[in-house]
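Shapes recur. One chain:

:::
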Amino acid sequence: MSEQYGLRWNQVDFERRELHLIRAKNGDSRTIPLNAIALNALHELQGGKTRPATDPVYPSVRTGDSLQGSRGWFSTALEEAKIQGHTWHCNRHTFASRLVMASVDLRTVAELLGHRTLQMVMRYSHLASGHQAPAVDRLVPGGGRMATKSETAKSGAKPPKQSKTERRRK
């Protein structure tokens, strides 16, 4: 059973904004911080009631026991929402990709995903080229992007002033 489906209310710490996984996917225990959206979602699931500590956070509607996975209910939800080509694993990939695109370092992303190696996190970290451009722009003094000759010619604007060092290089 995956980490989220085996989660019990006694593993949710609302005060510290954390989930405590006793036995995570890789066999280790770990703590996962919760952002405001995740915390609100858990409050909604709790329904304003204090739940017994051993109750599952995600109970089966039919049995009340922990869900065993996404089979059944997830495909039905996708059909009703008219979403195609999406799997449960896409959620994990999106989480990792969005963290990386928000400039979260890969070690932290790996820890949040429960990966022991950076090699594993790289599988989830496909980045759009648009997120790479700001990285190389950091090398430009002042943090900005310098206009190219063709851009300044088209706009009629004057090219940015160069420092003495830059002028000497030419």
